[in-house]
Write a structure and sequence with these properties.
With about 325 residues, the chain is of the alpha/beta class. It has 2 domains: about 1-140 and about 280-315, Isopropylmalate Dehydrogenase (3-Layer(aba) Sandwich); about 140-275, Isopropylmalate Dehydrogenase. It has 13 helices and 11 strands.
């Protein structure tokens, strides 16, 4: 069977992206599962390969689409830089273009640095927003997968107070419909989605908050009448455990940290982000640029490997 082609942008040059990419491409699992095109700086990829002790015969197999951007000759590992922010953006842009042009099936991304993006004047806060803008997708869905457990997010990078305000009947209904469609596109046809509760014990019938009764229950009941296999609210202190055990095929987390804590505590390195609802499939590591250990050959490539393998897996659906 032909291996799917996965585009991998190099990430922030000052971070651990180059290191984890070359380590991932040296992995037998990745070599067997996918063909990888690196969108990045060929000189820095070579430097990372030497640093990480990648054998020359393995490095010669790397397929690098070299992208030159100004200022990288002056960057300092582990430091915020406008040059690195601009470079990271250009790598992502090219990786997306590879999929749009039919030269790749999906994109698997290493980490980027939000401060470097801002320093470069890039008008997007992170990967999801960049992919949304460059694929004309108004509100991409974020899905985490770890050990078969899938978690969607009703809101992402907003304050907790604002996230609570975003728990409305209309938003929940919209997200469940879109999440179900995204699962079908990934080949997940069967199973029940659970909507997590917002308050302790899902509010205990209004004792600890009214959001469940005001928004979640009405949304779930109406969705069920429309034929959607969804339940909720399910108390957040148990819903993720139940999903891991197979009772639910996915969970709709109501805010960023609710789902992040559950997945990353289970297995930090193997928690992979999937951006759904776009014409471009994207998987990603779910850790940062780790500036404190960048360019020291200390970074683990497990998340990068898992991101590429998951991109390859869903590219075959």
């Amino acid at each position: 069977m032909n291996r799917p082609v996965i585009a991998v942008p190099m990430g922030d040059p000052a971070g651990i992206g180059p290191e984890i990419i070359v380590k991932a491409l040296a992995s037998k699992d990745v070599q067997q599962a996918a063909e990888v095109i690196i969108a990045g700086n060929a000189q820095l990829i070579h430097k990372a390969a030497v640093l990480c002790g990648i054998p020359e015969e393995v490095e010669r197999t790397f397929n690098i689409l070299n992208i030159e951007t100004p200022g990288l000759e002056q960057f300092i590992p582990g430091q915020v830089s406008a040059a690195c922010g601009q470079a990271a953006f250009e790598y992502i842009k090219k990786a997306i273009e590879l999929v749009q042009e039919g030269k790749a099936c999906a994109v698997a991304t290493p980490p980027i640095n939000k401060e470097s993006l801002r320093a470069a004047g890039v008008p997007y806060i992170g990967h999801t927003e960049i992919f949304g803008a460059l694929t004309n997708t108004a509100d991409p869905l974020t899905l985490f997968e770890v050990h078969g457990m899938r978690v969607f997010f009703l809101s992402r990078h907003v304050s907790l107070r604002k996230a609570c305000d975003m728990v409305t009947k209309e938003r929940i209904m919209d997200y469940v419909v879109r999440c179900k469609k995204a699962l079908e596109q990934l080949g997940v046809q069967d199973g029940t989605m659970a909507v997590a509760g917002l308050n302790p014990h899902s509010g205990e019938h209004g004792l600890f908050g009214t959001e469940e009764g005001d928004a979640i229950v009405p949304a779930v009941e109406e969705l069920q009448k429309l034929g959607y296999d969804v339940v909720g609210p399910v108390s957040a202190d148990s819903v993720f455990h139940l999903a891991l055990k197979g009772r639910y095929n996915s969970v709709l987390s109501l805010y960023h940290d609710q789902g992040h804590i559950a997945t990353k505590t289970l297995d930090f390195e193997r928690t992979i982000a999937i951006t759904c609802g776009m014409p471009v499939l994207r998987t990603s590591v779910d850790h940062g640029t780790a500036f404190d250990i960048a360019w020291q050959n200390k970074a683990s490539a497990i998340s990068m490997i898992e991101a590429i393998l998951l991109a390859a897996k869903y590219s075959r659906v």
